[in-house]
Design brief:
Shape: globular
Number of strands: 7
Distance between the termini: 40 Å
Oligomer: single chain
Helix content: 25-40%
Largest sheet: 5 strands, antiparallel
Strand order of the largest sheet: 2-1-3-4-5
Order of helices and strands: EEHEEEEEHH
Strand content: 15-25%
Length: 124
């Protein structure tokens, strides 16, 4: 009997690539940036599970984007633990359109220009 494969590593800050479905570490090692290079030619869209938010990557730069998950009242809350969340079709359509229309780079630039939250280059 062949030995069983080792269990997958436990990630403290998991991120799901919304292009291919891979689960990566978003713990500041640059794994999402590297994955975006190979999966999306430098452009990536990720869902950060611990933060319940989206991460848009273009080249070495990244920006946060609103979560497609909302509560029963259609609102997004910072305190989401223990509350049932639902996928908002309108919000996910915005993400789909951004990917299909190649406007992820524009969204990253706009978000980094207007946001007070700056992400270091290649952090994710």
């Amino acid at each position: 009997r062949p030995p069983s494969p080792p269990p997958p590593p436990v990630l403290d800050h998991p991120a799901v690539c919304l292009v291919c479905g891979d689960v990566l570490s978003a713990g500041g090692s640059g794994a999402c940036t590297a994955h975006a290079r190979t999966c999306g030619a430098g452009v990536g869209v990720f869902f950060l599970l611990q933060e319940c938010s989206m991460l848009l990557v273009h080249g070495q730069r990244a920006a946060y984007f609103a979560s497609p998950y909302v509560d029963a009242f259609g609102e997004r809350h910072g305190q989401f633990r223990g509350r049932p969340l639902f996928l908002d079709p309108d919000r996910i359509d915005v993400v789909h359109a951004m990917w299909a229309n190649h406007t992820v780079a524009d969204a990253v630039v706009q978000s980094r220009f207007t946001s007070r939250q700056i992400i270091r280059d290649a952090f994710y």
